[in-house]
Design a protein that fits this description.
Blueprint lengths: L4 E2 L2 E6 L8 H11 L3 E6 L1 E6 L2 E7 L2 H12 L6 E4 L5 H11 L7 E3 L14 H11 L5 E2 L3 H8 L6 H12 L6 E3 L8 E7 L5 E7 L9 H14 L4 H17 L25 E2 L3 H8 L1
Parallel strand pairs: 2-3, 2-6, 6-7, 7-8
Antiparallel strand pairs: 1-12, 4-5, 9-10, 10-11
């Protein structure tokens, strides 16, 4: 049968969350809710629920490499999201394996600090992330705690966020979205530092809810989804923030588990998008 359509494909390289609120589960839900076809690479197997992580079982580096290769050789994505990378070796494996394939928009959500304030990655891993992964990404989406690690400074105000964002750019990041949800303020302010030297500020009212588990995963995956749908970077960031805000708002009144509950990813799901299939020559013509 002649191929007439193709799905916008988004890939996640991240850890497991059996409680369904964060990690690969949140990524797949977000991709699906926004009309994208989801593929996934598992990097770690945490044992967790809404009350926290009890243990983490490692996935062999070779298995991660083989997952990436087998998927990219068959179902090539239009955008890739990377979640927590907890060892320096894993950073090397991901960067080296992805370098074997054509460039695709790469979104990195640097999960480095738990909500309790505990560091989740060692200094050697952070150093490898800075040296090898950040320069390869098209967008990095740290929260305040993660930005503080990368910028090597305390962040307690909006002015600090501006300084930290500029420091992260100097690490080789192409674009930085610094999320301000952890600041003590009634207003949530996020700053987007683009690759043209401009800083865009986005403000919204903070939603008072305990159901915030997986917010960072959801936002980075939403942006990845819109990039897979050919949105320009700034438009993808704006649309991703809007989706995440609504997912939080529509899940505020739901009790799921005994701890920090998840967002409502399917508050208004889109159908799986079918785009016209273009041959390589037609695609080249379109890109000229």
């Amino acid at each position: 049968m002649q191929k007439e359509y193709i799905y916008p494909i988004a890939m996640t390289i991240a850890g497991f969350d059996g409680s369904g609120g964060a990690g690969i589960q949140a990524d797949i839900k977000t991709f699906s809710a926004l009309g994208c076809f989801a593929t996934s690479v598992l990097t770690a197997l945490p044992i967790q629920n809404t009350q926290g992580v009890q243990a983490i079982y490692a996935i062999p580096d070779r298995a991660i490499q083989e997952q990436i290769r087998v998927l990219l050789s068959d179902i090539f994505p239009k955008a890739i999201k990377i979640g927590m990378v907890h060892t320096a070796t894993l950073v090397d494996v991901i960067v080296e394996t992805l370098s074997e394939y054509p460039k695709v928009p790469l979104i990195f959500d640097p999960v480095m600090v738990a909500s309790s304030g505990h560091r989740l990655v060692q200094d050697a891993t952070v150093a490898t992330i800075v040296e090898k992964l950040i320069p390869k990404t098209d967008l990095i989406t740290p929260n305040i705690d993660e930005a503080a690690v990368l910028a090597e400074m305390k962040i307690s105000s909006l002015d600090d966020m501006y300084i930290a964002g500029e420091r992260i750019l100097k690490l080789g990041a192409t674009n930085v979205l610094l999320k301000g949800g952890h600041l003590q303020s009634s207003t949530l302010t996020s700053l987007y530092f683009d690759n043209q030297g401009k800083v865009h500020s986005y403000e919204s009212a903070k939603l008072e809810t305990n159901n915030l588990h997986g917010t960072g995963c959801t936002l980075s995956s939403a942006i990845t989804s819109f990039l897979a749908r050919d949105f320009p970077m700034e438009s993808a960031i704006v649309a991703g923030q809007c989706y995440t805000y609504k997912a939080i708002k529509n899940g505020m009144d739901v009790l799921t588990g005994k701890g920090r509950g998840p967002l409502n990813h399917f508050f208004d799901p889109e159908k799986l998008i079918k785009n016209a299939f273009l041959s390589e020559s037609e695609q080249d013509q379109k890109n000229r």
